[in-house]
Amino acid sequence: MRRTVFDEDHESFRQTIRSFIEAEVVPHYQEWFEQGIVPRDFYLKLGELGTFGIEVPEEYGGAGIESFKFAAVQYEEMSRAGVSFGGSSTHVALCLPYILKLATEEQKKRWLPGFVTGETMFAIAMTEPGTGSDLAGMTTTAKRDGDGYVLNGAKTFITGGVHADRVIVCARTSPPLENNRRFGISLFVVDTTSDGYTVGRKLDKIGLRTSDTAELSFSDVRVPAEDLLGEENEGFGYLGQNLPQERLGIAFGAYAQAAAAVRFTTQYVEERKVFGQPVAHFQNTKFELAACQAEVDAAQAVADRALEAHDLGQLTAVEAASAKLFCTEVASRVIDRCLQLHGGYGYMNEYPIARLYADNRVNRIYGGTSEVMKLIIAKSMGL
Ligand SMILES: Cc1cc2nc3c(=O)[nH]c(=O)nc-3n(C[C@H](O)[C@H](O)[C@H](O)COP(=O)(O)OP(=O)(O)OC[C@H]3O[C@@H](n4cnc5c(N)ncnc54)[C@H](O)[C@@H]3O)c2cc1C
Description:
Elements: H1 8-25, H2 29-35, H3 40-49, H4 69-81, H5 88-102, H6 105-117, E1 122-125, E2 141-145, E3 148-159, E4 166-172, E5 185-191, E6 197-202, E7 213-224, E8 228-229, H7 235-271, E9 273-274, E10 277-278, H8 283-311, H9 317-341, H10 352-361, H11 370-380
Parallel strand pairs: 1-4
Antiparallel strand pairs: 2-3, 3-7, 4-5, 5-8, 6-7, 9-10
This protein binds flavin-adenine dinucleotide.
């Protein structure tokens, strides 16, 4: 089936990213993997390449293209090469929509030029040690004090939390209402050099080794009123509006990882000989890979359709949840079956399939777990 989601511009961008990965990522990736972080100046290189500014309007230094398709191409190319770009996906796919939709003109002028160049890296902090799926239960507070707010609390699992210069922090500014526990949450774009702002442990993860995932804590951090993003107390609604893009990005990344797994495995089974013949010659291998390819084709169709709908501004929260659930569950099954076909080598980090296996697992957890996706879909069915 001919794929219609990408045009010549996207394919040309694909070549640029592919060459960039070969020149600037692959030679250093083992070192980054061992250190558990990409060097800070790598983000400046991504900024120079132009990937951070694609969706940013021209007046702030970007290209002004209103499309998530270039980001999707980047997901495909990272997966194809078996690498990832640290916390940069969070910077673009998660944080940028909040700034574009909610920031005032003055805020955009302050933040977006640095966003585009990679000099100001962004992260987003929703999850807390005591609450992840149930975000309305967050306990970080921001109390009004004179011409600003005072922030207290802690966040965890924050992607890009070590390198971030600005973090979109979700905090309670008012108690929940009796009939609406989602009321009272606000978003702040917090300067990470503020007094009382502490980056805690860089967490030791089984996968996504090059992305810095951190604990953050806030002890009487003064946040100026001009760093409030959007309306006070309306933050939960903003999260709801932006989570579909985050979920689409995860769905796309997961499908792309599954596609890469099938590609890596098809090569491997041709080369590896067992009982005097390539593993590819066993009927089981052919059947396994054929079944995996069929699942990847289906996931690609779902991901492409969701991407197209998103670019048209039509992707609903339920459709994004459905795409995330389907693509991430397919990817887990496919990558596991592909790893099995590698035998013991599949368990070794030097083989890309091992990294894909570990990197992919989190797709069913972050951005909302598969169970939370099912809750959203079930609710839309009146259940
Ligand atoms: C590598 C990584 C990066 C992350 N990056 C970020 C980030 O940048 N910013 C950020 O804010 N967060 C981030 N997160 C947090 C992530 O979004 C949460 O881990 C996720 O939402 C789940 O929350 P939790 O871990 O508290 O799990 P819990 O909410 O404690 O869930 C535990 C289990 O209970 C299930 N469950 C929960 N509610 C229900 C229900 N109603 N019915 C049935 N089952 C239910 C869940 O599905 C899960 O299986 C990241 C997490 C990881 C692992």
